[in-house]
## 1
Amino acid sequence: CLLSNLFNSQSLLEQLYDGYDEEYDCPILDEDRVVDELDNQMREGGVIVDYHGCDFFPERWFHIVFVLRTDTNVLYERLETRGYNEKKLTDNIQCEIFQVLYEEATASYKEEIVHQLPSNKPEELENNVDQILKWIEQWIKDHNS
């Protein structure tokens, strides 16, 4: 998760919340504060951002965007196992059906840098990691010459 990896302390993480959403049973992220907090680190480069949305992140931050896609049956089981309430579960499934995150990514960034990767089985996770690592290696090679 983006937040747990980039922020060292729970108190700093809590400063980025702007309330609590009872309906979805989760904290509300103050997106402006997140961008302000991450901007210097992102300018330095070498950061991988892992988050379930992207439209509030500045375009200048990214050279490539990967959107993980999951079959709705697999997704339903994952979210049910996590204990998501019915509204949150249904909304997440609908987002996957209607490709909301992919469309958000292509609307927020140049379409040629947005890629979809399947995320249904452990083998696909391994393939995705391999593909992302190959992209990183190639990007480094292309930009260090």
Note: The chain is about 55% helix and 15% strand.
## 2
Amino acid sequence: MFEGSHGFRTYNYAPVNYIQTPYECTNGFFEGSLELTDSITAFGEFRISQRDSEQQLAPVPYDTAFDPGYRVPVLDDDGNVVDYAQGVSKDNLYNPFGEDVIRARRRMIERARTFEQDVLQYQSVLGLNGDIDGNWSWEAYWNHGYRKMTDTSRGQLYGPFLSNALGPSFLDASGKPTCGTPDAPIAGCVPANLFGGPGSMTNEMYGYLEAKLVDHYKARLDVVNGTITGDIMELPAGPLGSALGVEYRDQSYTYDPDSAKAKGEVTGNTGPGVDGSYDVKSVFAEFNVPIVADMPFAEVLEVDVGLRYDNYSTFGGNTVAKGSFRWKPVADLLVRGTVGDVFREPSVGELYQPELDNFPQAQDPCAATNWGNLTPTQQNNCVAQGVPDGGHGDTDTQIRQKVGGNRDLQPEQGTTYTLGFVWSPGFLDGFTTSVDYWDIDLDDAIKSIDPETALNECTDSRSLCELIHRNYDGTIDYVEGNLQNLSNEKARGVDFSIGYNLSTDHWGDWAANLGWTHLIERSKVEYKGAPRKSFEGSADYDSEGNFKVFPKDKALFNLTWYFRAFRVDYQLEYISSVDAPVSFIDYVQDIDSQVYQDIVGAWSATENLDLTLGVTNFTNEEPPYIDAGFNASTDPATYRMFGRSWFARAKLRF
């Protein structure tokens, strides 16, 4: 804990969170086939996985504005009861103020939150395939997948017991703190001390309040698919290839929360469960059309086209198309390109998830601490929302957002384009280079409006105010965050690769490859009517609220040396610098570029035994600290979370 410049004691929650989580997984796999006739084969696969894992998060940020507590009457200036709030009784032993407290907040630093998962999942595939007259082949299969997870969490607090522990209390005849009154003591209850310093919440207090919560999740997927492939006819440049198929997909998802969560009787994220499903009927066709072959400036020119129609039980039918071409004007050069529809249907959770409480970071512009920074128009907009002139007194930087699914969601749709070439010059054996430009434009992206965006827009221009719900005193009760088809997202960039393979008589074989991606654009319009924001070389949050950086340049260099039974691999990864805005203040953090290096050596000791020894991140680089990185204080999906480490592996074939 440290004293911030605003005079409040703040808490650094990041060190408590697990970065590397305990994880134990057992996997099994079976694959087999049986030739039924000369032209029909039966096949099957089965894989199963059992996982036990655990995470730890910072302690509960307890706040009676959102969490259960003792029911305290709220009085107006004339002493009339106008409302009831969750708070602390004036007769609580540990209440030093002698009056009811209607808003109390405390980081429960003595007890972290833990989450344990027990996951069983399996997949089975059964099918038949065969040939028809040697020119056509067919395949039909049934794919069944199932996943069951039990999530057990500790560290949250049980509401009815909080009401007892924060209500009236007294010292009994032996001097023991006791809940209730001398005439009506509450057996087994331990009064809670919210107003003491670190350590004032004892193990006995937590032992009474802590809730063990058990949630159950189930997911199922069934796919029945049939395809037939073959050449329809012979064209001057080659056969007209085709693939035709039908598919039926049915999936379901069930979330059964602990009963205390479903009733809203605990701290943290509460809400009812989910039980939803949908099915899809599909037909599709793909064709490979050779246009020209073995001609001047057209050794190969062919086009691939595809069409797919899906009929969803949730929102009806949809058709997507794709096309690509390959052109070799000369033997050394291949020019290629694609164009296609981007399509993603809403998941079961996105469709049917009921409203749950979430507590993202956000700052209310209408708070008294910000009032002096607002223009008169902004101040008037705050007052129009029910905020008292001068602002309200809540300085909390975590607010409640109610997030849920939406049965009216439509699919995300867009277009994607690529254009590039591959050059393999005949005069330089082993050398290849390629350049590809790509462009993705996605409409109706599924997401919820960030609460800080809603607060700022309402204060600036009175837009999105309908999402904000305030209490009688102007403080925020919650901000709506149900999923909608909101944003447009764009991404453009260039992929470049260069490789060279060299064989020598005495020094083995060498292979070098460099892959580089340059991000030209990464932008989005958060909701219809909002300005476009660009994030290339900067940072943003994805549709699930996860922090991400978007470096303009990323490169990966590999060098491999093969010598008899030995192999040595060297890898260098480069990530360019980014600018990351700091939360709540007008400052941009400059995140330096990062370089990671790995080296691995392998020896094929015998025909059946391979030995491998490697060192990853051997220069011991640490992940950059990023203020906006929330729980990890960085972006774990981009940067390596651990320093130098080594591994050894033996692979035995028998």
Note: DSSP finds seven helices and 37 strands in the chain.
## 3
Amino acid sequence: MLGKIPRLLWILVLGLVLRLINVNQSLWLDEATSILAASKLSYSAIIHQFSPGDFHPPAYYLLLKFWIGIFGSSEVTVRSLSVVFGVVTIYLVYSLTRKLFDNTTALIAALLLATAPLHIYYSQEARMYILETLLVVKIMQLVITIIMGKQRIFTWISLFAFSGLLLYTDYLPLAIFISIGLYLLIFENKVFRKYFFGWMGIFIGLVIVYLPWLPILKLQLAVGTVVKVNAPGWWEALGKTDFKQLTLVPLKFAIGRITSYNKILYYSLASIPVVLYAITISRSLFDWRKTSLIWLWLVVPLGAFAVLGLYLPIFSYFRFLFVLPAFYILAAVGAQSLGKLGRVLIALLVVCNLAASGIYLAAPRFQREDWKGAVEWIEINSQETSAASIFVTDGQRDPYYYYSKNVPSFGPSGIDLNFDKIWLMRYVQPIFDPEDTVRNQVETVGYKKVAERDFNGVTVWEYIR
């Protein structure tokens, strides 16, 4: 009976199980911001009040609000939306790869994505990155269907709908349309000319659909300029193109977000899957005519934003999760062309994926900031005394709001120093308070530091007087 279960189903179940392990870990800053916006604001307020101060379009937040309205806002339920998106993406990668190549290659690509440490990490995060990956894969699948001449009117409608949703989900993935355009013009010019009015209809329709967003996009750019002036450290931390950021792309694609204090050991072990992927992916070039669309999917966004990243802080590996499926599809194609050697390489890559994913899932230090633990510690040690938590900037308080029940918090303005105990939150202090103004203010009025704790990046200092 078990032997009759399709291999794809086993892969999907494996992908689901891996994405559910430790899905209840603490929320980090951006997740808490997403959840509070989605749960506290109306649909209209998300668009017109929250979005101008954010750096993303609102589609994910609107979907999350709908999801929270049904399932609630616990860590597990809010992240389960991304878990669903992640598993669906595995299936779509299988479907797309099968259209272009064959069933075995499709199963290999799906297995690599199912066990991929970076994809697992973001499938457990209440942010938009896994949604945009799903949308890009679906758009590519629909484009391939049209190129193969198997389209119907519903295919064009679906392409327009998913493309429109991508427009309102994030900005960097829009580079995929450049990849598609280049492929049509260079490799499928006959298809482009044959369906010219279809492509132009999609393009014009998307421009019209996007026009209402332009005023808010303008406000977001203005906010970004203010951040650059007022918090240059934060601006630089967002990621400009340099040697480190460029090397992190293949490294993190291969092993995810794990690291080691022993850098020699880390790079020695990490080089194993990187080399294996280099061998299999480069091998796919031998079938250039069939893999050219996938190569453009991988290379064009990375290349375009590597150049733009010299001037703007936009080049960080996690922003390119939407090209990760192309990375694995090319590895699957290359490995499949190598026969028995390819099967050995795939087995080794799956072992590497599972090892890296297992380390992330088992080791708390590779997981997210432990705001849950920090707030729990603060509240346990604030019983039977008056206490408050103080932040160096108001913009970093959302995880505290999410978890705190009893101990109030204050930003740098309007600090109340009439408590017996102060919890000074050192989170992002070097960036937003480089002069340590808040700490000096606390100590000037007589508070004495008596303890400190670090919760996976959330550092808390305890003061009494």
Note: The two ends are 70 Å apart (CA to CA).
